[in-house]
Design brief:
alpha/beta; 10 strands; TIM Barrel; 260 residues; 8-stranded parallel β-barrel; two-stranded antiparallel ribbon; binds the ligand O=C(O)c1ccccc1NCC(=O)[C@H](O)[C@H](O)COP(=O)(O)O; 17% strand
């Protein structure tokens, strides 16, 4: 079994347990559930930099990245830097994240927040909404076309933006549908962990103009962004490059200063 299959198998068990612990009605009663969302897609469209900065303590490909920094400090640093949005890993087992991290970031900043999760069930979208998310991620590699359609439509009914992630042509072809706001190309093959921004370039011409194009993973310098902008990319998801430093917020500030 590859790592992605393992993550998804664990996620099914986790969601089944949570559904018994916290009923949907309780999620819907959260004050944040009623909060108006801010569109990441609009923020990217209006930006010349397009950085979505990520909070990521560890990962299957890199083990520990940063266990020391506080999520609030990271969030405030990213907002000060001028990031268009922040992505927060909420998976505990493989990434060391949590929904508590999400709440702390929500309380600290006003920029759009993306719940970075392995979404396989509508319940996780209600959780995202109840914790103040503006955007959710759907990963084509772990969902059927029908699941992408129903989950994205449900997310839109909750006023959440949808970022759909692909890694190859087949995933892209099954995913193009009007209930998505952004199409992300993950430069990391989630089964082998190989990383190359070439895949963003190759798939760029096949992404219709109606979607905001986002390039994800393995971006570590301003030159890579300038290059990807030539292929129509408006958003750039960066995690490790900031998180591996002692002060991720400060690293984002320096990075964006070079980009502006
Ligand atoms: O990062 C991993 O090792 C990983 C492994 C398996 C599934 C997902 C994984 N990462 C999620 C992401 O897509 C990245 O966190 C995100 O795009 C940022 O990437 P990076 O800038 O390379 O940290």
């Amino acid at each position: 079994m590859n790592i992605l299959d393992k993550i998804v198998a664990d996620k099914h068990k986790e969601v089944a347990l949570k559904k018994n612990l916290i009923p949907i009605q309780q999620l819907e009663k959260s004050v944040l559930f009623e909060q108006e969302t801010v569109s990441l897609a609009n923020s990217l469209k209006n930006s010349t930099t397009g950085i979505i900065a990520e909070h990521k303590r560890r990962s299957p490909s890199k083990a520990v990245i940063n266990q020391k920094v506080s999520v609030q400090d990271v969030a405030k640093g990213y907002e000060t830097a001028g990031a268009c949005g922040m992505s927060i890993l909420t998976d505990g087992k493989y990434f060391g994240g949590s929904l508590d991290d999400f709440l702390l970031a929500r309380a600290a900043v006003n920029i759009p927040l993306l719940r970075k999760e392995f979404i396989i069930d509508e319940y996780q979208l209600l959780e995202a909404k109840a914790h103040g998310a503006d955007v959710i991620l759907l990963i084509a590699a772990i969902l059927t076309k029908e699941e992408i359609k129903s989950l994205s439509q449900f997310a839109k009914s909750l006023s959440l933006d949808v970022l759909l992630e692909v890694h190859n042509q087949e995933e892209l072809q099954k995913s193009i549908m009007p209930s998505l706001d952004m199409l992300g190309v993950n430069n990391r093959n989630l089964k082998t962990f190989e990383v190359s921004t070439e895949i963003s370039k190759t798939l760029s011409t096949q992404i219709p103009d109606d979607f905001v194009k986002v390039s994800e993973s393995g971006i570590s310098n301003v030159e890579a962004i300038k290059d990807l902008q030539q292929y129509g990319y408006k958003g750039f998801l960066i995690g490790e490059n900031f998180m591996k430093t002692e002060n991720p917020g400060q690293s984002a500030i320096e990075f964006l200063n070079k980009l502006k």
